[in-house]
Write a structure and sequence with these properties.
With about 140 residues, this protein is of the alpha+beta class. It contains four helices and five strands, in the order ααβββαβαβ.
């Protein structure tokens, strides 16, 4: 469950992304649309799922992309909503969830990251073999 203060922090993060886009494609982002989708997800009205893991809001979906032979867990959004929160526990949560749901792995991205290189290094520590923006991280067995 997301508290009203946590939802407010998500809204503030979307507002900051819109006000100061650090990636060219973010100029096309709409904070109100993004927040509306998150709110619909919280009500169970989208195909996305969510969790809060150690102060990180994680939104993800399960499905079979055009390139995959099996379902994958696709991370859609990771936002720190508590001061000092780290994403390591959130990554472990995604890996465990993918394993429980018999997914081939976890697809991660750097869509809103302000430090892609650092995030890719962290993804590699969790088992990714490549450093692209879309990474398949097989669940640990």
């Amino acid at each position: 469950m997301v508290s009203s203060s946590q939802l407010q922090r998500i809204a503030e993060a979307f507002g900051q992304l819109a006000d100061r886009p650090h990636k060219t494609w973010l100029r096309n982002a709409d904070a109100a649309t993004a927040l509306a989708y998150v709110e619909e997800t919280l009500r169970g009205a989208t195909p996305s799922s969510y969790a809060i893991v150690d102060g990180v809001f994680v939104m993800y979906s399960i499905g079979r992309p055009w390139w995959a032979a099996r379902d994958v867990l696709a991370e859609e959004l990771m936002l720190r909503i508590e001061p000092g929160a780290g994403v390591t526990a959130a990554l472990s949560f995604l890996e465990r969830t993918a394993e429980l749901l018999n997914c081939a792995g976890v697809v991660l991205g750097t869509t809103i990251s302000t430090n892609d290189a650092a995030l890719v290094r962290l993804y590699r520590q969790h088992g990714s073999a490549n450093g692209g923006c879309a990474l398949l991280v097989p669940p640990k067995r």
